[in-house]
Amino acid sequence: MNIASVRRPIIPPTPPRAPDDLSFFGRLAMIRRNMIATWGQRAYEEEIIQGRFFLHKSFILNQPDAIRHVLLNNYENYTRTPAGIRMLRPVLGDGLLLAEGHSWTFQRRTLSPAFTPRATANLVPHMTAVLDETIAKLDARTSEPVDLREVMQRMTLEIAGRTMFSFGMDRHGPTLRNFVMEYGERLGRAYFLDMLLPVSWPTPMDRARARFRARWTEFVAMLIAERRTAGKKEGAPPRDLFDLMDEARDPETGKGFSDEQLVDEVATMILAGHETTATALFWALYLLALDPETQEEVAFETSGEHLDSIADIDRQKFTRAVIDETVRLYPPAFLIARAARDKDNVAGAAVSRGDVIMIAPWLLHRHEKLWDQPNAFIPKRFMSKEPPDRFTYLPFGAGPRVCIGAPFAQAESVLALARLIGAFRVELVDADPVIPCGVVTTQPDHSPMFRITRR
C-alpha cells in the first residue's frame, strides 16, 4: 500500500531489534521482560521463519494466506499453547477467550446478541456519562502534569463497570486495578517451566496463580451479587451487559449460563474490555502529542459535534483512522500463539502435532513487504480506497475467534479520543522516548507525564 504524504510522518520509538543469532536461552530470558524485543530483522522481512521451541518446531507467519489458513480455514486444528493457557486461565477461567470445542460454540452463540452494533448503541450513554466526568476532572488539572495512562485506565474501568453493571466503580475500582496490577507484574509473565511443561503438570507459579484465582473469582462473584440485588424492573429492556448476558440463551438449545460460567464471562469482558482499550487510548494520545498537526485534524473533525450516539461516532472518519493506525503500530494483543493438534501443511511447510505457530500482529503490522513506511504514524493510510488485506491487519484477531467485543471497543475508543482531543490540547512534558513492551499487552515501559490545556 503506497502512502502519499505532504509532510514527513513521525516514526515513534521502538525497542532495538534482537540479533538474528540470539541464543535460545538469551531469547528465553528476554521473553519475560519484553517479547517484542526478542525478534530480529528477519522477522520483519521474511514471510515464514522456522525455528525450534523445545521439542517441537516453531513457525512465525507473516504471509496473509498462511495466516488465513491457520485462523480461518483450519482453525479447529490449532489451540492455545500451554504457556498461553497458564497466563490467561487464572483471570479468565473457562470464559469465551479460552474455551474450546462445544463449550466455545455454546458461549459464542449465546453471547453474540449482547455485542451487536445495536446492543453497543444502547450502551453509549454509559460511555458519554463517564467521559463527561473525566473531562470535568481533567479541567481541574490543566495547571499540573498529568499521567494520562492512569487516567485512561481509570476511565475505561469506569466505563466497563457501568456498561456491565450500571453502577460506578468508585468503591470497587481500586480493588479491581490492584488485581490487574498484581497479576500483570508477576503472575502473568511466562517462566521457563510454564513453557516447558504440559498444562496438566503444575508449575510453582501455577500454585500462586491458583491462589490468585480463588480471590479473583470471589471478587467477581461479589460484583455479580451486588448487581443482582439492584435487580431489573419486570418487562423493562436490558439496561447493561449483565442483563444481556444473564438473560442470554443459546438459540439452538435454549440453555443459559450457570453462575460459575457467568463469573468467567464477566471477568473476561471487564478485563479484556478495559485494559486493552486503555492501552490503545494511551498510545493514541502519545502519538498525537508527538504529532501536533494530526492532533489538530482530530480536534477540527470533532468541533461542533455532540458525540452522544453511534451515528455521531460513525461520522468521525479521521479519528477512527487514528485509532486504526494506533492499533496497527501498537496492537494490544501483540502475539497470537497456537499449538497444532494434528499434522498440517502451512504454505508448503510441514507442521507436526505440538508444533507452535506464532502470528504476531506486532511483526505483521510492521512487515516491510506488506506496508509502506511500516514504522511511521500515517492515519490516512486507513482512509484509502484500498484497505489493507484482511490478514495483514489483526488488532482483534480474525476468523471464527475474532474478538466478539470489537464493535464495542472501536466505538468506545473513537468516542473517547474525539471527546478528549476536542476538549484539550495534549503535549508531552519531557522528551524521554516511551518504549513499547510486550508483556500481556503492548504496554509502555514507563508512564510519561502530559500537559493538557483547554481548547
TrEMBL record:
Signal peptide: none annotated. Heme binds at residue 403. Its cofactor is heme. PROSITE patterns: CYTOCHROME_P450. GO terms for molecular function: heme binding; iron ion binding; monooxygenase activity; oxidoreductase activity, acting on paired donors, with incorporation or reduction of molecular oxygen. Keywords: Heme, Iron, Metal-binding, Monooxygenase, Oxidoreductase. Gene3D superfamilies: Cytochrome P450. SUPFAM superfamilies: Cytochrome P450 (SSF48264). Transmembrane segments: none annotated. Belongs to the cytochrome P450 family. This is Cytochrome P450. It comes from Bradyrhizobium guangdongense.
